[in-house]
Amino acid sequence: MAPTQHQQLAFFRKNKIALKAKHIAILIATVFSYVGMTYFLDILDHNSQRIADTTDLGVDCESVVTEYSLNRLGQGANLSKDRLEEWSHDHKAFIAHGTKTVTLMDESRIASSRKAYQDLDMGHKKLAALFNVENKDMDHKVNLDSVIRWESKYLRGVNTLVANYQLERENIMSRFKLFVIGLAVSFLFLTYMSYVVIVRPMQAGFKKSLEEIIDQKTRLSALVDSTEELIWSVDRNGRLSMFNSAFETFYVNRYHEPPRLDMDINGMDCFRLHQAAYDKTLKNSSATISQEKIGQKVYESRLDPVVKNGQVIGCIIRRSDVTEREKVTDEIKKGREALMEAQEIANMGSWNWDMANDIIEWSDHLFTIFGQKKRDFVPRHETLKNLIHPEDRRAFDYAMGRCLKKRNRQHFDMVYRILANQQTRFVHQQGRIFHDGNGRPVRMAGTIQDVTEKVLSNQKIERQNKELRHFVNVISHNVRRPLSNLLALANLYEHGHHQENDFLLGHIQTSCEDLDSTIKDLNHSLTLKEVDANHFTDVEVDDIMDDVTALLQQEIQDSGAQLKVHSNRKTIKGIKSYYVNILYHLLSNAIIYSKPDETPQIKLSIKDHPDHVSIKVRDNGRGMKLTPENRKKIFDMYGRLSGKTSGKGLGLYLVRNQLEAMNGEIDVQSTPNKGTVFEIKMAKGLDEVYQEKDPLRNVNRSISQNTVV
């Protein structure tokens, strides 16, 4: 739901509470008004009743006295006992009720009313005593003046009470007017506050909500009209209820007339394809996706139900051109198939390890390499370890743990044996570790390749190399013995007696020395293959340079070469004699291949880098034209680029072999008539890198000792 809709809902909830509070306040005010009105009306009714009762008592009193007086004058009947008792009963009831009545009179009026009640009661008692019809003797003795006097007193009390009650009525009416005015003011104030607190904010809120709704509707309409997708909506009867500009353009181009709302589109050919999707969407109340291909274009239509009050009243359709997406999907599919084929050809697979959840994703070919079925085997760290040869599990755990603990060591590289389908095979696993923002390893990905055939081939080559070295040793021993005899005999010959013999024996001696040197170099190149990293030491750079300059002292003097040495390291890991031989050959070549008319300028630099040590030999000599072919040939045995030189072509070959024996590499850059640069890179931590740079090397050794596949 959009944020604006949340705000509108919150506003409506708040106003709903305010409206409830307003209704409660109105209800309370209404109840208060009703109670107040009822209270005042009851008091007014009671006041009117008391005035009427008091007036009736006065009339009854006058009637009784008049009847009595007429009887005394002989002009009327005798005063009946029932008439007298009725008056007495009304009088007593009035007096009893009057003493309990709540009144709104002031203190003076209350006192006056009490005096009037006393006068009424006294007058009634006296008149009742005078009117006792049962006392015949006293009847003729009653003085009419006494009757009139007590009647007057009684009537005076009646008049006083009536006057007080009328004053009380006026007081009640005044208070009632004030109550009505206060009630009207309260209602006006409540109405004003309701408008200020509730109605006006609600009006502003509704106005804002309405503006936002209109703005959203405008933006939505603009968004719908700006897209190239066809969007339209139909009701349950298939009548058009909404469409965008793209739909209108499509409809006009197809039917040559504009679409109309509420038109039936069921029978039109371009929408008949969607009929089944319509029915499915209306029936299941869920989105439906369908595709259609028209020519070279692929269109996808998504139908979503329109729900109102829990009922599906129609559906909205969005039709998109997904041709490009389908092309990309096909290309991805083809690329995936090509990747799977490449992995199958290379006999390797890829993997991804989620370390937090211990979930490993394998490519399909890895299941084949490990002899597992995809539906039955779940790749995890422990299940993978169970497939590793028991003798290699400890080494695998050690290498993996070492890789995970060192943050600067992100690559895992190891060859180990696995048990696949009751066969022992060799796999080469490589991987890279990925860390989170806190430097913790979270994921690892890489490849696993079946290298069984390569390991067996290397084993065979290793055996052949041993046999070759043994053969060369035997041949060199058998050849060098007669060769040494020839050199000894040549040295016994005394020169100067026979010129022709001197010439022939000189050539024989030179040829024997060249052959002896060649045999020595051949033996030396073969022995380089057996170098062990345990022989590496920290060699002083100054010691190396002392030996090299001593060996080249004569060449430097003869050529006048200028040698500049710069180094920011004191030691280099490796074998001293190898470094001496390497630099000797490189510097010697720089002097030999210098320009005849220019003094040789040779610069030797040794620089320290984060992961390697760089050694560069730069000269200003003849240079050479390097092609991919002769770049490789220059480091081959007997590889010479020109027949004009007198070398045998073993110098750079020995340099390369000695560097590779110490886990180094060499490259050359050269420009004719400008000079040549030889760059050597020696990896740091040779004792560690030597063991891991070529994992198959150590595997080959273990295979040759105790492993048969």
TrEMBL record:
Gene3D superfamilies: 1.10.287.130, 2.10.70.100, Histidine kinase-like ATPase, C-terminal domain, PAS domain. It is an enzyme of class 2 (transferase). The chain crosses the membrane at residues 23-41, 178-198. Keywords: Kinase, Membrane, Phosphoprotein, Transferase, Transmembrane, Transmembrane helix. It holds the Pfam family PAS_3. NCBIfam families: sensory_box (TIGR00229). This is histidine kinase. It comes from Flagellimonas aequoris.
